[in-house]
Amino acid sequence: MVKRKTLFAREDLANKLIEMAKQRGYTLYSIVNEIFELAIQAEEAGVNLRKLFEESWIPKKAKKDGFILGPEVLWYDMADIAYKNAREETLKKWFEAGIWLAKRYMTIEPEDAFEAFKKSLKAYTWNIPEVIIEENEKTVYIRIVSPRIPESYTILYLAFLEGALETFGYKVSNKDVSAGSIRIKALRNDLNVEE
């Protein structure tokens, strides 16, 4: 026979858990034990549950934003082929994709569209070790660095970022791009003077 142990929890949390258990047809005892089992399994596997929960939105949001998953090397190769065979058209398509995604954020999250875009951009580039986006009232700085990204993809991704920034009301004033490295400084369109 399995022994039971009395535990204490905040009343508001306990009440929510009781409500969840009822909605799922569980007893409070069974849902608490399931939570404990999952927490123990996560700990034994070295998984941080809070981080896992905080990042669980990424695939769902990426799907809503029109992204698909695919092998990284295949994506780079296909981008390289398109860039080499139809450079201007491919750059235009990537620029337009940036515009489209920025407009999507402006429509669904008008209050914090750029903030949501930045959060998603960082999340969707999980294969890139350095993605830094800093902003103040009038300037946005973006730095992306990854030794694995080929030059063609880097140039195309720059076009994507320029399309998005332009749509959010920024004009790129300075850019530096080379294989695996993008550095952008963009000013708000309503400013005439660089800082």
Structure description:
The protein has 195 residues and is α+β, with helices and mostly antiparallel strands. It folds into 2 domains: 11-54; 58-188, 2-Layer Sandwich (Muramoyl-pentapeptide Carboxypeptidase, domain 2). 57% of the residues lie in helices and 15% in strands. It has 8 helices and 4 strands. It has helices spanning 11-24, 28-45, 49-55, 57-64, 72-85, 87-108, 113-124, 151-167, and strands at residues 130-135, 139-145, 170-178, 181-188. A 4-stranded antiparallel β-sheet has the order 1-2-4-3, covered by helices on one side. A hairpin with a 2-residue loop joins β3 and β4 (181-188). α1 crosses α2 (28-45). The longest helix has 22 residues, at 87-108. It is elongated, with a radius of gyration of 23 Å. The chain starts with 10 loop residues before the first helix and ends in a 7-residue tail after the last strand.
Question: Strands, helices and their partners?
Answer:
Layout: H1 11-24, H2 28-45, H3 49-55, H4 57-64, H5 72-85, H6 87-108, H7 113-124, E1 130-135, E2 139-145, H8 151-167, E3 170-178, E4 181-188
Antiparallel strand pairs: 1-2, 2-4, 3-4
Helix pairs in contact: 1-2, 5-6, 5-8, 6-7, 6-8
Task: List the keywords.
195 residues; alpha+beta; Muramoyl-pentapeptide Carboxypeptidase, domain 2; 2 domains; 57% helix
Give the count of structural domains: 2
Biggest sheet, spatial arrangement of strands: 1-2-4-3
The average pLDDT is 89
Q: What percent strand? A: 15-25%
**N-to-C order of helices and strands:** HHHHHHHEEHEE
Approximate shape: elongated
Radius of gyration: 23 Å
Helix content percent band = 55-70%
Tally of extended strands?
4
| Sheet with most strands | 4 strands, antiparallel
| Uncertain segments | none
Q: Which CATH class of the largest domain is shown?
A: Alpha Beta
Structural class of the helix and strand makeup?
A: alpha+beta
Q: Within the CATH hierarchy, at the fold level, what is the topology of the largest domain? A: Muramoyl-pentapeptide Carboxypeptidase, domain 2
Query: Which architecture name of the largest domain does CATH use?
Result: 2-Layer Sandwich
- Give the termini separation: 73 Å
Count of alpha and pi helical runs: 8
